[in-house]
Amino acid sequence: YFANIIYKPSYISLQTALSFYGIIPEAVPEVTSVTTLKTNTFSNVFGVYSYKNVKPDLMFGYDLREMEGGRRVMFATPEKALADLLYLYPFYNTERELAELRLDESYMEDDFNTDRLIEYSSRIGNKALSKRIEKLRKVHNI
Question: Is this prediction's pTM over 0.85?
Answer without folding.
Answer: yes
